[in-house]
Amino acid sequence: MAVSDKGSPPDVHASASDAGQFIHHHTEFPTTWLSQALDAVISAIGKTASWLWIVVTGVIIYAVVGRYAFGMGSVTLEEVQWHLAGAGWLLGLGYTLVTDDHVRVDVIHERLSLKGQAWIELFGLVFLLLPFLGLAVYEMIPYAVSSWEQGETSQAPAGLPYRWILKGILALSFVLLIIAALSRLLKVTALLFGFPKPIRIESGNNKKEDAS
């Protein structure tokens, strides 16, 4: 005997296509003309660096085919892989911050009002992130310069020369993170203190002029 669906409880499980409406991890702070300019620079660098992953994929495929199809392994190709992957990852760090797509593990933050979230961001940026990044740049720049002065190369046979380039990118990535963090800080102070003057409010894909 067929059982009618009429009167049955509605399906409480949302489909995968509907999941996006329940997931929202971005904190929407007002932006300023300076933060907008800084974000544009960081975004351009991050999007350009993302193309390195296509190059990395091509190098990996070439190395795998060469090794297993023709028995030709290459230390140089192996180092090219991780050099390019490291550069792509490092140069994309700032982009994740300006787009607020970095990983957040904070059950308190998401339950607060926008101003409450802004106060947490202010504390985290001023007392945690920026001091750490400043220390990292202070240590990383001499690290890269020392590598350049020594003409450091890979210790592996047939490895890559110019190891200072990757170490320089490491230092650059922290500088870009500082710029991204300062841009974020400007948005926070614009919300909390009205300085710098906010020019518009980001709301998803819609941009609304600030009414103040």
TrEMBL record:
GO CC term (a single one)? plasma membrane
Q: Where is this chain's protein located in or outside the cell?
A: Cell inner membrane
Q: Which residues form the Tripartite ATP-independent periplasmic transporters DctQ component domain?
A: 57-188
Q: What is its main location?
A: membrane
Keywords from UniProt, A to Z, are: Cell inner membrane, Cell membrane, Membrane, Transmembrane, Transmembrane helix, Transport
| Gene Ontology molecular function, alphabetical | transmembrane transporter activity
- What domain of life? Bacteria
Classification via Pfam families: DctQ (PF04290)
Q: Which residues cross the membrane?
A: 51-70, 82-98, 119-141, 161-182
Q: How does it sit in the membrane?
A: Multi-pass membrane protein
Q: How does it assemble?
A: The complex comprises the extracytoplasmic solute receptor protein and the two transmembrane proteins.
**What's the family?**
Belongs to the TRAP transporter small permease family.
Q: Which PANTHER family match?
A: 2,3-DIKETO-L-GULONATE TRAP TRANSPORTER SMALL PERMEASE PROTEIN YIAM, SLL1102 PROTEIN
Q: What does this protein do?
A: Part of the tripartite ATP-independent periplasmic (TRAP) transport system.
Report the protein name in the record. TRAP transporter small permease protein
Organism of derivation: Marinobacter maroccanus
